[in-house]
Amino acid sequence: MSEMRIERDSLGEVQVPEDAWYGAQTARAVANFPISGRRPDRDFVLAHVRIKLAAARANCQPGWLVKEKRDAIAAACERILAGEFLDQFVVDRFQAGAGTSHNMNTNEVVANLANVALGGQKGVYQPVNPNDDVNMGQSTNDTIPTAIRLTVLAKLPRLTAAVRAMAAEFARLAEREQDTVKSGRTHLQDAVPTTLGQEFAGYAWTLNRCAASIEAVRPALCEIGLGGSAAGTGLNTSPDYPIRVAAELATLTGEPITVGNLVAQMQSMNDLGRLSNEIRALALELTRISNDLRLLASGPRTGLGEIQLPPVQPGSSIMPGKVNPVMFEMLNQVCFQVLGQDAAVAYMVQAGQLELNVMMPALGSALFDAMDWLTNAMNAATEKNLKGIVVNRERCAFFIHQSVALATLLNTQIGYAAAAEVAKASEQSGRPVREIVAERGLMDAAAFDALVLAAANGIGAGGGAG
Length: 466
Prior knowledge:
Blueprint: E1 4-9, E2 12-17, H1 24-32, H2 42-60, H3 67-81, H4 100-117, H5 130-134, H6 140-176, E3 181-186, E4 189-195, H7 196-215, H8 218-221, E5 223-224, H9 241-253, E6 258-259, H10 264-267, H11 270-296, E7 307-308, H12 326-349, H13 360-384, E8 390-391, H14 393-402, H15 411-414, H16 416-429, H17 433-439, H18 445-456
Parallel strand pairs: 5-6
Antiparallel strand pairs: 1-2, 3-4, 7-8
Helix pairs in contact: 1-4, 2-3, 2-4, 2-6, 2-9, 3-4, 4-6, 6-7, 6-13, 7-11, 11-12, 11-13, 12-13
């Protein structure tokens, strides 16, 4: 066992590991909440430390925090932001309501680092006190929701980049396969022709639309309630503190951080709920697209087999040579988990009472997970599978010419009744519509093929090639 030091808080003495940079309240939280075994999200830790740095700078301007303490706090924060001491943030994600335990974890680590730098020692909070100095003008109630907002702002570009990268790959495939005619399928039944390019272009457009919808939430996330203190009233804050600390955070993050309604930002998690809603919408679209790709790749001999996904690992422990669409199976699983995280967020958004929503630690964690999991899963699926898709054009051509639905194309050429006769003949004989049309002298095979391609691209039918 490591050696221990004795610290004191308002409840009495606490044993703290001698090598720990945190203090008594963090040690109590570690003992109280052995729940998930998951430590805080890295982006969240850094966001919260940026708040402490911004607050120290803002509090020094009116002379509330002396320059020596400000510099020591700032130096400690900058070391953490550079990647040091991240293992000292140890409170479980499921913890005291609102996140008091994490707030004190940050306050204690920063205070101890500052004091040691000034010649003091860990656990003796002089001259820098975690509550009076590091937490000056702040409360858990305004720092934690602000840190959650800063965290999702940091994750947003990575998520939307993954969405747009997948969309770009679908767009590339759409361009490449714009003339690959295939049978459309509605109700999982044969339908009029389309092209693989049209299908892929639809996926690209949808994903870009999802990315834009997610990005549209960004301005609301940039409005913070830091400076509201314990109940949104600004108790124990210096004059103009909210404006000054927002300006510091804007500099530190590169985001257009502004001051929102201090009371509302503490009561309401609606902006985070909006973001979760858009992420859910993305997960639903990704589920649909993943299912389509798995269906198109089914077989390869006894299914559709119109595309082949790159093999990345053996697919069976018993069937030699079997390869499964594992990357899009993985993406499906992630999407389903994200839907669960969104449901949790929704419950927690409505679970606030009066001046505060105390569900913030778990709410933030659920949102962070959803963003990270989708980002990683989309990147993996794009790189390992989507970029290597092989199209079986012969298979596509075989299916399209087996489809009786091709008779629909003849409606405007020979009329519905005559087209129905062709369809009936194809159905009864099993022969392709193309052969029957040519045999009856209605249209030669080349002209019929041109008609199919034009129809598949929406030409002459009021549609567009997209």
